[in-house]
Hints:
Blueprint: H1 2-28, E1 35-39, H2 46-62, E2 66-70, H3 77-84, E3 92-96, H4 99-106, H5 114-117, E4 118-126, E5 129-133, H6 142-151, E6 157-160, H7 166-178, E7 183-186, H8 190-198, E8 204-208, H9 209-217, E9 222-227, E10 254-260, H10 265-279, H11 282-290, H12 300-321
Parallel strand pairs: 1-2, 1-3, 6-7
Antiparallel strand pairs: 3-10, 4-10, 5-8, 5-9
Helix pairs in contact: 2-10, 4-12, 7-12
Amino acid sequence: MRSIRTVGIVFGLATVLLATVSGACAQGNYPNRPIHIVVPYPAGGIVDIVARAVIEQVGRDWKQPIVIEARPGANSNIGTAMVARSEPDGYTWLVTGPAVLVNPTLYKDAGWDALQNFKCVGLAVWNQSVAVVNPTMPVRTLAEFVALARSKPGQLNFGNPGTGSSIDLTAQKLFQVADIKLANIGYKGQPPALVDLMTNLMNFEIVSLALAVPHIKDGSVRPLAVFTEKRVADLPDVPTIAEAGYAEAAYLPWYGIYVPAATPDAIVEKIHDGIDKALQNPDVQRQLAVADIPGKPMPLGELAALMKTDHEKLTTVVKASGIPQQ
C-alpha cells in the first residue's frame, strides 16, 4: 500500500515538474508561432495605422508572422472583449485607445474590467488633434467660439465620431472646462463627420491632425487650437489648447498595446522590449511622423500608472458629461 502511495506521490511531483519545465520552455522560446493582433476599429483608421507601423516592425525584428485583424463593432467592445477572454500566452494582443479604459463605465455589458483584465505592454502613440470649425462661422479663436456657444446653449452642434472615443473624450473635457453645451451628433468615424463640417452641416469638431491638416491648408476648415503640448510644425500659427486659454482641457489621448492580465511576466517583458525597439526604428518614426502621431517608449511601471490615472480621469469625464450608460 505504501509503495502505491509513494509511486502516486512521485508521479504527481513528476507531472508538476514536467508542467513547470514545459511552461518555462514555452516562455523561453516565445514567440515560436504567429501573433494575432486585434484592432477593434475599422481598417484604415488611425489605430490601424499605428498597429501596422509599430507591430509589423516587431514581427520583422522577431522574424515571426504578425496577423492584424480589424474587429470593429459596439464602439470597440467586440474586439476588446475577445482579447480579454483569449488565452494569456502572449499570442493575442489588442491595439486600442482610451475606450478600453472607459467603455466599462459606458456599457453595462462591456465584458471586461480594464485594470483587472488587461496589462499594457507598450505605448504606441499619442493622438494629437485639433479643434476646427467651418470657415463661414464668425469666429477665429477658440475663445470666440466659446462665447458664441454660450450665447446659444445647445444650438450649435458637434460631430462626434464615436461615444467614448478619444475624440469624444477630448471634446467632452473641453466642453466641461469651457462650460458650454453643444448638440451631440453621432457619426461612424471621423471622415464622415469631417465631410459634414466642410459642407457646413456641422459647426464644431475635434479631428486627428493627420486627417485635418490637408483640409486646414486648403481652407476647407478653420483651426482654433491644437491639443498638443507644443505648437505643430505644420500649423505654426495655431495656438495650443493651453495658449488658447483652456489649459485644463489639454487632454492628449494615447493608443496602447494590451495583453490579457494573466500573461506571464517574462512574456510581457519580451513584448514590451520588442515594442520599444520598434518605436525607435527610423522607418517607424517616419511613418508615425507623417501621421502626426508621435511614439514614446515607456517603462512597464509607468504604463501601469498611466492606465490607472487615465482610467480615473476619463471615468470622471464620462460621469460629468451625463452620457447615459448603455
